[in-house]
Fold these 3 entries.
Entry 1:
Amino acid sequence: MRVLFITSIYPSENKPAAGVFHQTQADSLKELGVKVDVVCPVPYTPKFLGVINKRYQEYLNQPLHYKWAGIDIYRPRFLAYPGQLKWSQPHKRFAKAVDRAIQENNLEFDVIHAHLAMPAGGAAAIIAKKYNKPYVLTLHGSDVNVYPHYSKGAMEAFRFAVRNAKEVIAVSGALAEETERLTGVKPRVLAIGINMERFEGADLDEQSKRAIRDKLGLPKDKKILLYIGRLVNEKGIRELVEAMKQLNDTFRLVLIGDGPLLQEVKVHPNIIVTGQIPNDCVKDYLLASDLFVLPSYNEGMPTVIIEALSLKVPVISSNVGGVPELFGEQKDLLIEPKSTKQIVEKVEQYSEGIIYTEEVRDSLYEKVKGKFDVKKNSLDLTFLYKQMQEKNPNNEVEK
């Protein structure tokens, strides 16, 4: 079985944390004997922009081809415009770059798997028609809850990607319901999951936790709150920073990631900013923390929450997307988005031992172990690939 991944984000030397959930799935499929090639186009960047903007410099430095964990990654260039997911949908330009990578590298594939509806899903529809191959589309969150609502053109691009897919997967039930409401297509629900062998339940004693903090250069005598993700407003970063101003000096907040709010969040003395880190280091930071916090305005099914719960690290998260279905009867632990007050209250309740009993941690761990093992979920995915390959329709694309 040969599968072509099409996506707009995937790890690289410049951005080792970008799209790690895609990598997790690709690695798991590879272990099952599936041949995976990844095409992840990069915006074409004039050299002068690389001089004045760090992000564009990263584009310039991106190699056209490299291997990541033994998988071939191709990064052809495509013409991109500022704010294109709002006003100038790029899936046709994206598809041309994908097609160029296929032809120049003689890539062969039986099934296409696109991650994120825009622009990868729309590009996959075009490539699927040209090569007469079926494609499956995985929806992750913002590609359903945010981007389609930018403009009429964005909604049309979203519906084009979803309605032309042979199979559509949503990583949570809430995401599947919203997709059906917007498009009339009901996705099947299948989370990517995590590598449970790496993120296994662990109750560390204080000595072991202090040793990990010492290795990471973190304070040993403070309660550490951890956030991992993009440093953008929609992730509730400003509310989280404001909460730190209201919490006492026994707390420290560690922010892992990059984004437009990077300089803004550095001003508080009780906040430690690491920038991006390799995915291999995530486990240590989770084990070193007392509490993981994700106060997003919207989410699909956040992989990092699953990783935290699998390590029995307490989590405070917003009551959005697929998070409440993950927490189930424990959803009273969740907060409403945009609420600094609730962040402070939950952190203090945790610190005082009011919430997150051992029974709660074990219950959430068992749920994660049962539903979010990437090996089990990848087996389900390979079965779906085989079904698609056997049927292999003519892929007539809807206008």
Note: The chain has a mean pLDDT of 90.
Entry 2:
Amino acid sequence: MTIPTQMSLHGFIAAAPELTYGKSDVARFRARVGIEQWRKEADGAFTKLDPLFCDMVLFKSSAERAYARFRVGDQFVASGYVHEYEFERDGTTVQREEFVARRIGHDAARTRYNVDRPTPSAERDAGPEAGRESDRTVEPPAAIGL
């Protein structure tokens, strides 16, 4: 069996996100995002390079939730795909790409946050989750990795 996977992107929100609604009243979240870049040196050290930037979009209820939760500077992890498109500008065809996120969350390795879980239902109370703390503060260590 093949594990179903999607492309992922991790970075930071570089410019104020926008929430718009299209002709069919579908919500669209758009943000300029930055992706940190590093180069490994011959001595094993890493040198931080200028970030790369791209556009990221989400649609429907995911767009509304992302707009309510994400601000400039927030670190995120998203899964989705790259959408390549073209448009006309001043008589010239311009090619662009954007990351279309299907899922997004704050980067747990770089963000402190509280988990606000819904009250467990009666069915869950009897299951393996019964007795577990339903709300706790998650404070990860400093950035994991590089």
Note: Residues 60-69 form the longest helix (10 residues).
Entry 3:
Amino acid sequence: MIDPVLPTYARAPIEVARGEGCWLIDAQGRRFLDFGAGIAVNAFGHAHPELVAALTEQAGRLWHTSNLYRVPGQERLAARLVEETFADTVFFTNSGAEAMECAIKMARKFHSHHGNPERFRIVAFEGAFHGRTLATIALAGQEKLVKGFGPMPDGFQQVPFGDHEALRAAIGPETAAVAIEPVQGEGGVRAVPPQCLKGLRELCGEHGILLIFDEVQSGYGRTGKLFAHEWAGVTPDIMAAAKGIGGGFPLGACLATERAAAGMTAGTHGSTYGGNPLAMAVGEKVLELMCAPGFLPRVSEASGRLRQRLEGLVAAFPDLLEEVRGEGLLMGLKCRASNAELVARARDAELLVVPAGDNVVRILPPLIATDAELDEGVRRLEAACGALRAAQAA
């Protein structure tokens, strides 16, 4: 008999009762150090008092009107995002997949708007993850995502990660855009070098196509900048954001330049819930906290500390671990042992981490993690490695 909840998740055997900062407490009272952060969502941890206050205050006034009317919170948050980023305009969504859907539509509409409807194909990279809608799984092209859901929508192709010649060869008269994650999360915490992002920006300009950055996981302070592409000193034409943008409340956004968004006029796109007053109240507070003086530099400082300790862990367990990957507090441990087994052993040590592709364990603490919490997380990870080594030797 099928479960009342559609069984599409392989859930860990934990029933979470409440959260406090970087900690989750289960129904039995066990305290887990949360280095998954809801898969890079809970940038300010759990039950942050200022986010709770922003949400409850708004909940007492107004929940939902749809986008039939002006939403002042959208106007304020969009203006602030425009001020802080490359973008001239913002479309609010409920999720990262929806933000990427908007980006795909916008890229196609751009070329159609300029009299080139034949330019509709978008090139992506193997190992990418862009969401779970039909268009976004077709864009990523991973077998585990698309199997059983065919035929896939036309207009998407993938090239090997880091293969510059393959990318150049893939661009043709039907190409509309290139889409890339500055740091692949699900794909194994693989960072794109700054010089490659710069080269990609030049390549897109050379061919008159748009550059789309998927910063759903790498954005919103996760690498020590508001968005990861800022480290390379380049800007996209269109960008998807989500996860950390709402600090745990469902929220996403598609940001774009005025040029890229030229074809997106009234009626071309929409969302019933996107940008609702509750999400906007939380989103405004998240961005305020994120842009407070000293916050992002602290993330970079914490990243250096965490990386140093993880490098020590790799040195101590070369039979289990291969290397440290990632940027900021989007870290990964490339494993020699099974990443799933290490995740389970970490859970036994009351540490929550997240598996990723390429046999990687993602380490995604809330951006507010203290030095003591970072050290404790690595200590628990060390205990997990010790338990796994002992189990393998038994």
Note: The mean pLDDT is 97.
